[in-house]
Amino acid sequence: MTYTPPLEWPPPVGWPPPSDDWMPPTGWTPDARRPVRIPPDGHGVLLPGLPDAEELPAHEPPGDAADARDRVVVRMLALWARSVQCDAHSYYQAASKAAWTDRAIDYGEEWSPTEHHLARVIEEVWVRGYRLVMSAYQMERWLQAYQQITGGSEQSDDRLRMLRNTIEHLDEASFTDLVARKGPPDPKNKRKKWSIDELPGKELFLGFDAGFTEAAFGLVNLKDVTTRARQSAQLDAPDEPSFDDYVTELYDPEGD
Fold it and tell me: Residues near 106 by Cβ (< 8 Å), separated by ≥ 6?
């Protein structure tokens, strides 16, 4: 379904949203002045400090600062891992639609889509592919932070970093009808290294290839990235008691 943006803001009541079918109850609108701040985990209420509360000096962080950082690292890693799973699926849907649209054009039937339809579908592939790259890049960053606090081996995906940097600075590149390459010399640009030069062929293909249903931009393998995300997506979930814990509690409630 094609999304139609509203002609005014906020959207009129009943205007179809772009991502899912949830709609606010009739007559309800958000209240930006609601004096409640919700903590990151959604539980409880963050109360403001007392007006005359003495603040700790900048060089004396709260005693639980390290614990707070650990919690944030776990939370953010799990958050981005779940985002990767969602974005990968969303990308796969768009890429599959592009592959089908390209094939359906060849039939030349009355129901067949046109090159105009294909262009719009490829546009969606590009946008969703970039969202996946960004969420996967964030997951990798937080995974490194998690490995630092757990003593695990630090690993990074250099190709993902190069692709993210390339797209982030794509407006500075040179273009043909099909690919982007390193931009022209610019005395104002002091950059010594271009990430696009580290990609295969030193270029980024701007169109769509059948293999892109397996890898975003032909570089981010969907199976690999979702497998990696699955390992971290529930790190912030509350610990569930194991069966052994249950048996121990059942037969030895005093822990003797």
Answer: 112
